[in-house]
């Protein structure tokens, strides 16, 4: 299977967890893959047909898509998306910081440090909102930048809603 499919499935799983995509958008992605790919895995067909599942069930289906991928590039794509959201609407800062907190353990495992554990604290009055936004912006800018070339991400990528 095309490694970009697995990477996109993982990215969609993370975005679904954070509420950045909807179930219909995930199903639409699977439908698009089915239309263009020759060698299909049953997991993609199952995602496409899962019109009545709950978010946690869809996240499980996305995680079951077969293939290998590198986690850091997937997280960089997610962080880039969050950076774009923050730059277009700074009022999303607190929400984004909480979303990063939800992923802080996984981010740490991927080498993004431990800052995500505390980015939301500033929005609770420990410092000014401006300082909190600057800390969040700094974190996202530092890690959304692709510092390493990933062969699977530089090759053909599958369409990704909101990327």
Class derived from helix and strand content: mainly alpha
| Count of all domains | 2
Q: Determine the strand fraction and express it as a percent band.
A: under 5%
**SSE arrangement, N to C:** HHHHHHHHH
Largest sheet: none
Report the uncertain regions: 149-161
> Could you report the average pLDDT, rounded to the nearest whole number?
86
Radius of gyration over all CA atoms, rounded? 16 Å
Oligomer: single chain
Shape: elongated
Distance between the termini: 21 Å
Residue share in helix: 55-70%
Tally of strands: 0
Instruction: Output the number of helix runs.
Output: 9
What does this structure look like?
It is elongated, with a radius of gyration of 16 Å. It has nine helices and no strands. It is mainly α. It starts with a helix and ends in a 9-residue tail after the last helix. It has two domains: 3-69, no CATH class; 71-144, no CATH class.
């Amino acid at each position: 299977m095309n490694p970009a499919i697995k990477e996109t499935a993982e990215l969609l799983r993370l975005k679904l967890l954070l509420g950045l995509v909807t179930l219909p958008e995930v199903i639409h992605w699977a439908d698009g893959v089915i239309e263009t790919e020759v060698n299909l895995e049953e997991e993609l067909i199952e995602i496409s047909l899962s019109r009545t599942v709950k978010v946690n069930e869809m996240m499980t289906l996305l995680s079951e898509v077969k293939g290998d991928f590198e986690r850091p590039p997937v997280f960089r794509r997610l962080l880039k998306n969050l950076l774009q959201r923050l730059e277009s609407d700074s009022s999303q800062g607190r929400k984004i910081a909480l979303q990063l907190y939800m992923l802080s353990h996984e981010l740490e495992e991927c080498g993004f440090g431990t800052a995500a554990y505390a980015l939301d604290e500033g929005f609770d009055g420990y410092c000014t909102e401006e300082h909190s936004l600057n800390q969040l912006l700094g974190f996202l800018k530092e890690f959304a930048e692709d510092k390493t070339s990933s062969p699977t991400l530089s090759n053909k990528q599958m369409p990704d809603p909101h990327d």
